[in-house]
Amino acid sequence: MTLQWKNRGSLIRNAVGLGLGVGLLFAATPGIARDAQGEGCAWFSGVEHCPVGAAELSVTDEGLLIKSADGGPGGVSLHLEGASGWDAWLSPLEPDWNSRMLLTFIGARPDGTPELLERVVVARSKAENLGAIYVDPSVHGASTYTVRGYVGGQLAFERFGVAPVPEAFGGPAGPGDDAKFSRLVAFPGKWGSGHGVIAGPNGETCTEGVDFPFPRPVRFPDRSLSVAVDLVTFQPEGINPKAATLREVSLQGVGLESFTLQKVARTP
What we know:
The chain is mainly beta. The protein has no helices and 19 strands. The strands form 3 sheets. Strands 2-3-6-18-8-9-10-14-13 form a 9-stranded antiparallel sheet, with no helix packed on it. A hairpin with a 2-residue loop joins β2 and β3. The two termini are about 20 Å apart.
């Protein structure tokens, strides 16, 4: 089995058939930005990016810099209307005790209304003393996930029925704190990108992913280790999202003065 998402690298991919359209329906939902056209927005890699919270956006030689204007939580919302997938390469980050990243994926139903697909946090786990990927099962009601690992685009492992473990993470208060996050997998070192798709090349639906600059094993809640991989994806089991495309994806840093998107790819 080969992962054929294009432009794969240090990116975050939402294979959920994401549509991150954050309209007024989700204006009060943590991690979802309002449609913001114009003020403060920037076009980067052919995608409109708009600030979330106290963020200021600027294009530099290294990419799109997202910087907190007042030291508080800030982030960016990517408008992806009609996309089937999304990838974002970040300057690699290593989760520490005082910072985390919240990713929110929103899809668009056939009638155009938004659907919250997934909330994901990358933070440091107190229990594991490692970086960890947290999911919010309350978004869709899934109790288990299918977790897949890849090396160089080739499937290295596939594990069904992974039940995330409820666990609070530390650091300053920020968006998403009222959600019920659970640790899905832990990992050593840095992470470097995110991915998301509504309809993946191998039949994936409602799938997100995070990749690493270099291969490393991930640790499951039962403390077993995988083989070393450079990309891990996670798909909630037993759900049937109505969204047909991705509408919007947002990334919000808590305890981060700034972060940089090196490149973004939108899959039609």
